[in-house]
From TrEMBL:
Record-level Gene Ontology MF annotations: 3'-5' exonuclease activity; DNA binding; DNA-directed DNA polymerase activity
Main location, first listed in the record: cytoplasm
Keyword check for Cytoplasm: yes
Keywords: Cytoplasm, DNA replication, DNA-binding, DNA-directed DNA polymerase, Nucleotidyltransferase, Transferase
Keyword Cytoplasm: yes
GO cellular component assignments: cytoplasm; DNA polymerase III complex
Domain of life: Bacteria
Protein's gene: dnaN
Protein name per the record: DNA polymerase III subunit beta
Family that this chain belongs to: Belongs to the beta sliding clamp family.
Length: 364
């Protein structure tokens, strides 16, 4: 294989492919990237038997061919180059990366041990706007668990009914849901690993096409296609959370509340728990720590219903408020240890709801 390509374009394509591949591998060969050069350009593909990605990049192929090379070193080398054009050429058992005055050589990996580029994309079952999808995923995927010991909580449930895409994520202590418009041809309901969706939210542009196949889910935009094995997620549903016992509702500026929470958080104990006490026309946030002292701050709010004093972990409450920056939010507080429901007073096309569990206050 021998080709010449624009350095910046090839660096971007390689970096995108590397980010969409899984960060950990059971076999070194799965960390490789397949480069397939033809008269039509260059195709980059990776496959770790669960996640597969492919995309194309413009290139002039002097000699057509396919090689497998370590993905991360190739991406880092291309990113470090400043020359406008780069040449990739097979030299013995290495792939040489050449620019005027410099040569970098990567080992060729055994293609026979690699699972290949993966199955081609199925026809899309839905299309969504990339910006709207990214807005929803930044919140919903962020609530999924990071602990692989409970894999069912490491995914985002995606349910499409033809006109609306609904997303649900939870780590057992909080849950976020979002809905956004979609154009669909067939209903689907899958649990997709949140790690991949988090990268998709950062990289996708234009219109994102969603694909489903038995036990797999895929997304594509431009020349990029990524697919993954799905998880078992029929249990993950906001219907499992009781919301009929809200007895106190607050309307408050999300930014003002978040700023106060951050300040009071400086005075909380090691668990980072603060108390939110509801009064007439305001709420009072308080925290105490034997070493740093104590703090209290009052924030104006429209209050309806009863009076209550739930406690929350600072980090979780800030995460719940972050999607609503610049908006007025409604906090539906339920008695006891039931979830508090956070939503925008005037939601847009992307309608997000966040459920955050209260914590037991220190000393109670």
């Amino acid at each position: 294989m021998d080709l010449t390509a624009d350095t910046a374009a090839l660096a971007d394509a390689t970096a995108e492919a590397t980010r969409l591949l899984a960060p950990r591998y059971t076999e070194p060969v799965l960390a490789g990237l397949l480069l397939h050069a033809t008269a039509d350009g260059l195709t980059l593909a990776g496959n770790d038997r669960e996640r597969a990605v492919s995309l194309s990049c413009a290139a002039i192929a002097h000699t057509e061919g396919t090689v497998l090379v370590p993905a991360k070193p190739l991406a880092e080398t291309l990113r470090a180059l400043e020359d406008p054009a780069v040449r990739l050429v097979v030299e013995g058992s290495q792939l040489a990366v050449r620019v005027p005055g410099a040569r970098f050589a990567l080992p060729l990996l055994d293609r026979d041990l690699h699972p290949g580029a993966g199955a081609p994309a199925t026809d899309p079952v839905a299309e969504v706007d990339a910006i709207a999808l990214a807005t929803a995923l930044r919140t919903v995927a962020g609530t999924a668990a990071k602990d692989d010991s409970l894999p069912m909580f490491t995914g985002v449930r995606m349910h499409g009914d033809g006109t609306l895409l609904r997303l649900v994520g939870s780590d057992r202590y909080r849950m976020a849901t979002a809905s956004l418009p979609m154009r669909g041809t067939a209903p689907f309901d899958v649990l997709v690993p949140a790690g991949l969706l988090g990268e998709l939210a950062k990289l996708a542009g234009g219109t994102v096409r969603l694909h489903t196949a038995p036990n797999r889910f895929g997304a594509s935009w431009g020349s990029v296609h990524v697919s993954t094995a799905v998880l078992d997620g029929g249990f993950l549903s906001p219907d499992a959370i009781q919301t009929s016992t809200v007895d106190t509702t607050l309307r408050i500026d999300a930014g003002a509340l978040a700023a106060a929470v951050r300040r009071i958080g400086l005075y909380t104990d090691a668990g980072g728990v603060l108390e939110l006490a509801v009064a007439d026309g305001e709420i009072r946030l308080s925290g105490a720590n034997q070493r740093s002292g104590e703090a209290t701050e009052h924030v104006k709010a429209d209050v309806s219903g009863g009076r209550t004093s739930p406690s929350f972990q600072v980090r979780y409450l800030l995460d719940a408020l972050r999607p609503f920056t610049g908006q007025e939010v409604s906090l539906g507080i339920q008695p006891g240890m039931r979830a508090t429901i956070v939503s925008a007073v005037d939601p847009g096309d992307v309608n997000i709801t966040y459920y955050v569990m209260p914590m037991r206050a220190p000393g109670r």
